[in-house]
Protein backbone atom coordinates (compact mmCIF):
# COMPACT_ATOMS: atom_id res chain seq x y z
CA UNK A 1 0.00 0.00 0.00
CA UNK A 2 1.24 3.50 -0.84
CA UNK A 3 2.31 5.87 1.91
CA UNK A 4 -0.24 8.58 2.65
CA UNK A 5 0.45 12.24 3.46
CA UNK A 6 -1.72 15.26 4.16
CA UNK A 7 -0.79 18.90 3.64
CA UNK A 8 -1.98 22.47 3.40
CA UNK A 9 -1.37 24.86 0.53
CA UNK A 10 -1.81 28.52 1.42
CA UNK A 11 -2.44 30.97 -1.38
CA UNK A 12 -2.97 34.70 -1.76
CA UNK A 13 -3.28 37.29 -4.48
CA UNK A 14 -0.49 39.83 -5.01
CA UNK A 15 -1.07 43.23 -3.48
CA UNK A 16 -3.29 45.10 -5.91
CA UNK A 17 -1.66 48.41 -4.93
CA UNK A 18 1.64 47.17 -6.34
CA UNK A 19 0.11 46.40 -9.72
CA UNK A 20 -0.75 48.69 -12.59
CA UNK A 21 -4.43 49.21 -13.35
CA UNK A 22 -4.21 46.83 -16.32
CA UNK A 23 -2.78 43.93 -14.29
CA UNK A 24 -4.89 41.36 -12.50
CA UNK A 25 -3.63 40.30 -9.08
CA UNK A 26 -1.21 37.41 -9.42
CA UNK A 27 -1.84 34.14 -7.60
CA UNK A 28 0.91 33.26 -5.12
CA UNK A 29 1.47 30.08 -3.12
CA UNK A 30 3.37 29.51 0.11
CA UNK A 31 5.96 26.73 -0.09
CA UNK A 32 8.60 25.28 2.19
CA UNK A 33 12.13 24.22 1.23
CA UNK A 34 13.10 20.76 2.39
CA UNK A 35 15.94 20.66 4.88
CA UNK A 36 18.90 18.34 5.21
CA UNK A 37 22.06 17.81 3.22
CA UNK A 38 20.39 16.30 0.13
CA UNK A 39 18.38 19.48 -0.51
CA UNK A 40 20.91 22.04 0.80
CA UNK A 41 22.19 23.23 -2.59
CA UNK A 42 19.01 22.64 -4.57
CA UNK A 43 16.37 25.22 -5.39
CA UNK A 44 14.29 24.21 -8.41
CA UNK A 45 12.49 20.98 -7.59
CA UNK A 46 13.28 21.24 -3.86
CA UNK A 47 10.18 23.02 -2.51
CA UNK A 48 6.92 21.49 -1.34
CA UNK A 49 3.70 22.20 0.46
CA UNK A 50 3.94 21.60 4.23
CA UNK A 51 2.81 17.98 4.61
CA UNK A 52 3.45 14.76 6.44
CA UNK A 53 2.53 11.10 6.65
CA UNK A 54 -0.37 9.64 8.55
CA UNK A 55 -1.56 6.24 9.68
CA UNK A 56 -4.77 4.52 8.71
CA UNK A 57 -7.67 5.79 10.79
CA UNK A 58 -6.19 9.22 11.54
CA UNK A 59 -8.25 12.33 10.76
CA UNK A 60 -6.65 13.64 7.55
CA UNK A 61 -7.41 17.32 8.16
CA UNK A 62 -6.05 17.07 11.71
CA UNK A 63 -2.88 15.49 10.29
CA UNK A 64 -2.52 18.29 7.72
CA UNK A 65 -2.82 20.88 10.49
CA UNK A 66 -0.35 19.02 12.74
CA UNK A 67 2.22 18.62 9.98
CA UNK A 68 1.95 22.27 8.98
CA UNK A 69 2.66 23.31 12.57
CA UNK A 70 5.55 20.83 12.94
CA UNK A 71 7.24 22.01 9.76
CA UNK A 72 6.58 25.73 10.15
CA UNK A 73 6.50 26.16 13.92
CA UNK A 74 3.19 28.03 13.77
CA UNK A 75 -0.41 26.86 13.54
CA UNK A 76 -2.35 27.04 10.29
CA UNK A 77 -4.01 30.46 9.98
CA UNK A 78 -7.61 30.47 11.22
CA UNK A 79 -9.23 30.54 7.78
CA UNK A 80 -11.57 28.12 5.95
CA UNK A 81 -9.83 25.17 4.33
CA UNK A 82 -11.04 23.56 1.10
CA UNK A 83 -10.12 20.05 -0.02
CA UNK A 84 -8.23 20.07 -3.32
CA UNK A 85 -8.01 16.29 -3.68
CA UNK A 86 -5.44 13.53 -3.48
CA UNK A 87 -2.39 13.47 -5.72
CA UNK A 88 0.04 10.64 -6.50
CA UNK A 89 3.66 11.75 -6.25
CA UNK A 90 6.52 10.32 -8.33
CA UNK A 91 7.55 8.28 -5.25
CA UNK A 92 4.11 6.62 -5.26
CA UNK A 93 3.04 8.47 -2.13
CA UNK A 94 -0.51 9.84 -2.13
CA UNK A 95 -0.81 13.41 -0.81
CA UNK A 96 -4.23 14.74 0.24
CA UNK A 97 -4.20 18.54 0.05
CA UNK A 98 -6.30 21.27 1.62
CA UNK A 99 -6.05 24.88 0.48
CA UNK A 100 -6.77 28.20 2.16
CA UNK A 101 -6.52 31.83 1.17
CA UNK A 102 -4.40 33.69 3.69
CA UNK A 103 -1.87 36.49 3.74
CA UNK A 104 0.31 34.45 6.10
CA UNK A 105 3.40 36.47 7.03
CA UNK A 106 5.40 34.79 9.77
CA UNK A 107 8.46 36.60 11.10
CA UNK A 108 10.31 33.29 11.03
CA UNK A 109 9.76 29.56 10.86
CA UNK A 110 10.99 26.89 13.25
CA UNK A 111 10.80 23.34 11.95
CA UNK A 112 11.05 20.07 13.79
CA UNK A 113 14.23 18.09 13.08
CA UNK A 114 15.29 14.62 11.98
CA UNK A 115 18.46 12.60 12.61
CA UNK A 116 20.68 11.43 9.79
CA UNK A 117 24.12 9.88 9.60
CA UNK A 118 26.16 12.63 7.96
CA UNK A 119 28.47 12.48 6.20
CA UNK A 120 27.23 9.09 5.03
CA UNK A 121 29.36 6.30 6.43
CA UNK A 122 30.89 8.53 9.13
CA UNK A 123 28.99 6.96 12.02
CA UNK A 124 27.99 10.45 13.23
CA UNK A 125 24.33 11.30 13.63
CA UNK A 126 23.42 14.91 12.99
CA UNK A 127 20.16 16.79 13.40
CA UNK A 128 18.67 18.65 10.45
CA UNK A 129 15.48 20.73 10.17
CA UNK A 130 12.74 19.14 8.05
CA UNK A 131 12.20 22.60 6.55
CA UNK A 132 14.92 25.26 6.25
CA UNK A 133 13.08 28.05 4.42
CA UNK A 134 9.55 29.11 3.47
CA UNK A 135 8.22 31.86 1.24
CA UNK A 136 5.63 33.05 -1.22
CA UNK A 137 6.05 32.36 -4.95
CA UNK A 138 3.99 33.46 -7.95
CA UNK A 139 2.25 30.28 -9.09
CA UNK A 140 4.15 30.10 -12.38
CA UNK A 141 7.50 30.34 -10.59
CA UNK A 142 6.27 27.79 -8.06
CA UNK A 143 5.85 25.25 -10.87
CA UNK A 144 9.64 25.17 -11.29
CA UNK A 145 10.27 25.17 -7.53
CA UNK A 146 8.03 22.27 -6.41
CA UNK A 147 9.12 18.66 -6.37
CA UNK A 148 7.97 16.55 -9.29
CA UNK A 149 4.35 15.58 -8.94
CA UNK A 150 3.18 18.72 -7.16
CA UNK A 151 2.46 20.69 -10.31
CA UNK A 152 -0.89 18.90 -10.39
CA UNK A 153 -1.66 20.40 -6.97
CA UNK A 154 -1.09 23.90 -8.37
CA UNK A 155 -3.35 23.06 -11.33
CA UNK A 156 -6.08 21.90 -8.94
CA UNK A 157 -5.76 25.11 -6.93
CA UNK A 158 -6.24 27.23 -10.05
CA UNK A 159 -9.28 25.14 -11.09
CA UNK A 160 -10.76 25.43 -7.59
CA UNK A 161 -10.38 29.22 -7.58
CA UNK A 162 -12.01 29.50 -11.01
CA UNK A 163 -14.87 27.22 -9.96
CA UNK A 164 -15.44 29.33 -6.85
CA UNK A 165 -16.16 32.44 -8.87
CA UNK A 166 -12.70 33.90 -8.42
CA UNK A 167 -11.91 33.98 -12.15
CA UNK A 168 -11.53 37.76 -11.98
CA UNK A 169 -8.44 37.13 -9.90
CA UNK A 170 -6.76 34.70 -12.29
Automatic annotation (TrEMBL):
PROSITE patterns, alphabetized: NUDIX, NUDIX_BOX
Domain named Nudix hydrolase: residues: 1-159
Pfam families for the chain: NUDIX
InterPro entries assigned: NUDIX_hydrolase-like_dom_sf, NUDIX_hydrolase_CS, NUDIX_hydrolase_dom, Nudix_hydrolase_domain
Domain of life the protein comes from: Bacteria
Gene Ontology terms: biological process: AMP biosynthetic process; ATP biosynthetic process
Gene Ontology molecular functions: bis(5'-nucleosyl)-tetraphosphatase (asymmetrical) activity
Gene3D superfamilies linked: Nucleoside Triphosphate Pyrophosphohydrolase
Keywords for the protein's UniProt record, in alphabetical order: Hydrolase
Protein name: NUDIX domain-containing protein
Organism: Cryobacterium tagatosivorans
Lineage, broadest ranks: Bacteria, Bacillati, Actinomycetota, Actinomycetes, Micrococcales
